[in-house]
Amino acid sequence: MKKVLSILGHLWMFPNTLLISLLVIPLSMLRQISYYGRSENGIIFEIKPKGWAGKLLTRFDKVGISLGHFIGIREDFLGVRVLVFHEDRHVQQQMLFGIFHLPAYVLCHGILWVYAKVTNKTDFSAYRSNPFEVDARRYAGRRALNK
User: Fold this and answer.
1) Could you tell me the pTM of the whole model?
2) Enclosing domain of residue 81
3) 80 in Cβ contact with 143 (< 8 Å)
4) Nearest CA to 88 among 22, 18, 137, 146?
5) If we measure between CA atoms, which residue out of 86, 78, 85 comes closest to residue 35?
6) Rounded to an integer, what distance in angstroms lies between the CA atom of residue 37 and that of residue 140?
7) Model confidence over 26-35: pLDDT tens digits?
8) Number of structural domains, the chain?
9) DSSP 48
10) Which candidate in 44, 83, 131, 146 could, as Cys together with 36 as Cys, close a disulfide (CB 3.0–4.6 Å)?
């Protein structure tokens, strides 16, 4: 049953992967990213820090991103195993939510951002409080401790 659910999850998120392929293929051809390996659920690419994709991640103070089956990690952070677990959890979330993952993620972030503004909470982070991020951090922490 677990295998069947996994296959259905991969099919459910396939439109996301197909759409992101339109970005991954040109970035790969421009040598901005390169294939690194596989995770449990995704394909890992190293993102060159000096390319525009790496600069964009740096600008937003991020070191990894997962879109569809693709996990991108800045090459200077590839050795951080817990980061791969974190991003792989986002792939699992996309397998569950499919095409609705990105809208749900952005909606959660937006609601939390408005909450912080309305309540004047200056020490509150909509990103860190986003339920998708909280879940990914917990999962990554548990995986890192168990391996």
Assistant:
1) 0.87
2) 2-146
3) no
4) 137
5) 78
6) 18
7) 888 888 888 9
8) 1
9) P
10) 44
